[in-house]
Amino acid sequence: MTLANEILMLLRANKKYSKEVSLYEPIGVDKDGETVSLLDVIEMENKETLETIILKQDIKELYEVFDSCLKDNEKTIIGMRYGLHGGREYTQREIADLMGISRSYVSRLEKKALERLRTELKRNGI
Question: Nearest 5°: phi and psi at 90?
């Protein structure tokens, strides 16, 4: 027996015990009855992971701009107004009462803070 034949026989024997799986091999069906391959599942998981990473990065960049360009009272007003600190959204009247200032002053500070955020976000290309 030649060396080439021995190698070929060895490869064929090992193939029986191989754990290789085709990425295109069907592994099941989805809720619509469509065939799902391993590649479909891997792509979906990676896509979700990539989207999560991008979202976290975007949130971090937004927070950095929020934290760096606003004054403390503006941060408080924007945070309370849009539910950034615990989820509850306060009205301008509620914020005014809690901070001991007029509602019109809260309105002016909110408008000024939002404009500053817009300007800074545009400047940073966000």
Answer: -100, 150
Dihedral sign computed on CA atoms, order 76, 78, 79, 83: positive
**Which residue, chain included where needed, has tokens 């799986």?**
21
Give alpha helix (H) positions in 70-102. Answer: 72-81, 92-99
pLDDT tens digits, one per residue of 76-123:
999 999 998 778 899 999 999 999 999 999 999 999 999 999 999 888
Predicted pLDDT of residue 105: 97
Structure confidence at residue 15 (pLDDT) = 63
Structure tokens of 89? Answer: 């959204």
The CATH code of domain 70-126 reads 1.10.10.10
